[in-house]
Amino acid sequence: MKKIIITIDGWSSCGKSTLAKQLAKSLGYVYIDSGAMYRAITLYFLRNHINWLDTVQVNDALAHITLTFKFNNKTQQSEIYLNEENVEYVIRDLVIAEKVSDVAAIKEVRTFAVAQQQKMGEEKGIVMDGRDIGTTVFPDAELKFFMTADIAVRVERRYLEMLAKNPNISIDDVKANLEMRDYIDSNREVSPLRKAPDAIELDNTALSIAEQLEIAVGFVKGKIY
Ligand code: DC
Prior knowledge:
This protein is of the alpha/beta class and 225 residues long. It has helices spanning 16-27, 34-47, 55-62, 94-104, 107-120, 133-137, 151-163, 171-187, 209-224, and strands spanning 5-10, 30-33, 67-72, 77-82, 85-86, 126-130, 143-148, 200-203. Strand 4 and strand 5 form a beta hairpin. Helix 1 (16-27) packs across helix 9, helix 4 (94-104) runs parallel beside helix 8 (171-187) and helix 7 crosses helix 8 (171-187). The chain binds 2'-deoxycytidine-5'-monophosphate (DC).
């Protein structure tokens, strides 16, 4: 069967990774969470007190960063490693969420991450989610989705997800963070969040996870069978 590249872009917390993981599993494809790469870089910058407005410091820091994804048989998902340390869970913290859009807007950071993402897609058979995957990373991908959902629904979903890990989190903090990231991600100079002209828009405000998957699989069938 023909292998393709599937890209899933969209706003923060609109279910991109849920759909991407399910599609990858059902097709036997590799799932890559590109946002995890920007989060891991942000973690490194914060831990090492890197001033990301200083290009020399940024380039020097990037030279010390190795990012890899390894499949965890227990959790049945691929997890990100920063210089051999599993950071899959620590990068989901609000401390990282508050800074990641600023770090992801830096040209050198994007060049670094995009080159690695493109390498991961060389063999195809990949589902990658993010903000610029269908526009910049894989502009020639065979199948592109652009996901949206109402802000209230997105806030509720992310709040419940974060509440499980942090009982002190407030819904207002989550809302403020989502709105801020959407703004920065779609207004930055380099590779802003945009719907690729050939992407299929999927609004999942009123869709269940199963319904969303069914719709997406319908489009996949049209491409690979
Ligand atoms: O998907 P996520 O919420 O884990 O992404 C975290 C941040 O990383 C997001 O606010 C913007 C940035 N990002 C990006 O700029 N480009 C991508 N391809 C993926 C994420």
